[in-house]
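Per reviewer request, we include the raw input and output of the structure prediction for the construct analysed in the revised manuscript.
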Amino acid sequence: MLGEKVIDGRQIASKIRSRLKAEVAELKEKGICPGLAVVIVGDDPASRVYVNMKKKACAEIGIYSEEYTLPQETTQQELLDLVKRLNGKEDIHGILVQLPLPGHLDEEEVIDAIAVRKDVDAFHPVNVGKIMIGNYDFLPCTPAGVMELIKETGIEITGKECVVVGRSNIVGKPQSMLLLQQHGTVTVCHSRTKNLKEVCKRADILVVAVGRAQMITGDMIKPGAVVIDVGMNRLENKKLVGDVDFDSAAAVAGAITPVPGGVGPMTIAMLMKNTVKAAQLQA
């Protein structure tokens, strides 16, 4: 029974990548080759893993990709100059600056510098505003991936109690907006929330993105709920786990994403989708 409950992000992402591969082939027949530039500053090991995965996905789908690896001591001006140069490159349709940046750099200023039409992470204030009013070109990759995973469970969001644990600009806030646009009744929880357990237990759909290993346990989950675990944490024994304690949660949930193999592959598939869309829009 458990196998039916587990939402396989790898399988769903693979289907999306196949569709995109066909779209890219069509674009290439029209003389358009989608291009993505990935900028990484410093040598954060997790960032390096993500960048390699993104490059691999580009190669699989047929997207042209460029990588710019900058040293840790890169200045703000050097990074802004590179972004400006990429904004002007016609063969680059999407620009992604891998976060987090080293502490001496101003992330906000860098994101603001990316051309809105090339902002495939959808972090630019203009794109964030478009999501807020529901008239957007790009969605942030992780929340968009979560919506696809929920869709795959066959659960109708309309009228459902949706609880998002975490209020980051990258996941929590846009996630709550997307659930709201699909007519969910949305509650956002965070470090100051009182009675977290009671709030989580109300959720028909529970999305957890706090970055704290195995924080949400089975006794906090409504029987039959859909549980989407965005967390990615490494325990001292090097095991990769989510923000949800999988074993106790899986015993209660109606459907649940594993870590790894749940949200992670979807995030990268959605980045590819945004890059293809950027190429279509710019063409």
